[in-house]
Amino acid sequence: MARNAAEFDEFYRATSRRVLRYGYGVTGDLTEAQDVVQEAYTRAWRDWRHLERHPAPEAWVRLVVTRLATDRHRRRAGWLRAVARTGPPPQTTGPPGLDPVLLTAALRRLPATQRQALALHYLFDQSIAEIARETGAAEGTVKSWLSRGRAALAAQLGDPTASDDARMLEVDDVDRA
Q1: Which of 31, 153, 169, 174 is the most exposed place for a label (fewest CB within 10 A)?
Q2: CA-to-CA distance for 130 and 43, rounded, in angstroms?
Q3: Domain with 75 in it
Q4: Residues 138 and 160 in one domain
């Protein structure tokens, strides 16, 4: 017997607001309530063939919401107990402290080709050959974009190792953009 999508849609439209209010009451947090209610309706859809014959399908969904919220609360409480015993997890360090706003502003001042090459190389870990294929440019051109882009970024972000030549490239490249 196939699931009746129209009947489930009707059930969802008729009950979802009430169940979300219930979930909010159980969890005390709207985002968490949305998560557990979504999961409860996902399970209801998965078991709809059996649930549509249930005497109180909305009560079944509320029970699932309650159990999911309880499980989350237990997991969180267990995690908090573990942190109290062992201390917080060690701080992970990210890349050297570049202010994302400054970096974004510096990237915007680069020509589009250099921005694209830098993004593909550093964010998508693409090789020079892969970037060349994707952009339709020669590998030498891609190397040039990466070199000039790195130099211009270093100059804009105040890298003391950036040469005066790199600073001049930045000015030339911005003027051409």
Answers
A1: 31
A2: 43
A3: 5-86
A4: yes
Question: Is the confidence at residue 36, as pLDDT, over 90?
Answer: yes
Kindly give, in sequence order, each residue whose CB lies less than 8 Å from that of residue 12, ignoring residues fewer than 6 positions away: 41
N-to-C CA span, the chain? 63
The domain boundary, picked from 55, 86, 117, lies at: 86
Look at residue 115 in the predicted model and tell me its pLDDT. 86
Phi, psi torsion values for 94, nearest 5 degrees: -90, -165
Q: What is the pLDDT of residue 107?
A: 81
Q: Are residues 113 and 158 in the same domain?
A: yes
pLDDT tops 90 at residue 123: no
Structure tokens at 142: 């891609």
DSSP string, 4-53: -HHHHHHHHHHHHHHHHHHHHHHHS-HHHHHHHHHHHHHHHHHTHHHHTT
34: Cα separation from own chain's centroid: 18
